[in-house]
Design goal:
The chain has 274 residues and is α+β, with helices and mostly antiparallel strands. It contains six helices and 14 strands. β7 and β8 form a beta hairpin.
Amino acid sequence: MLSYPGVTMAYKKNGECYYRAGITYQNKHISLGSYTTALQGNRAYEAALFALRENQYTLMDYTEDMALDFEKWVILMNFRDNGIYIKNPIYLRTNYFIYYISRDTYFIFDTDDLFYYGHHKIMIRGGHLFVSDYGMQVNILSRYGIKNYAVAGRDYRFINGNEKDLRYSNIEVINRYHGVFTTIHKSLPCYTAKIHIEGDYLVGRYPSEKEAAVAYNKAADLLIRSGFKKNFPVNYIGDVDEIEYAKLYHNLRISKSIRRFAENLLLKSEKERN
């Protein structure tokens, strides 16, 4: 059997043979992947050899015939150019880093997030970005205070227009609470709260975002007490203590349409019981 540098034979549990490729660079052994043939493994090894030791390639010189995954290529290039081995496809730049999902799909982050994304792999599900954290899929936008139901352009925006630039300075959160929107009413800015029942119902318009968020909670509570079967999300207002929240909750008025809908639910429920 021919011997290929950087390639070793291994066996699966069912006895099937496969080949592992790896290379040692700066006293660290780096796995390059598993292959069905020794020749494929050797091609991956040679690509890594020329990139790391011969310094013949740049990050964007990658081609699929190198037999290396692009993710592994990014890891190798970053280790060579920046002297830091990171297990995820991250390439360091001055004051920021790029996380590559593929050659054409990437995202820009602040260096403050390097430790987190160095240990959490980004996945895409339904157009949303997730990481696995303690066994749960967590939307990475939650790190910016953006809720899962938020809509780009309405609830948050990218200041420079680049949706791939996820640096904190580039993200502006417009609406932080469920059912709360920044609007203009009678030529004045205000916060409008709406709740979805059988379509969107106006809860009310309020001078502050916190008041609109509490009003939404109050409307949801009223509907649930009246027998409406829906699990409404609850707005959590972190910088308001229990006493202040209770005062707001008591004093805030909600629209007649919501109150009337709740009253009709109660009347319908009473008729059904009788």
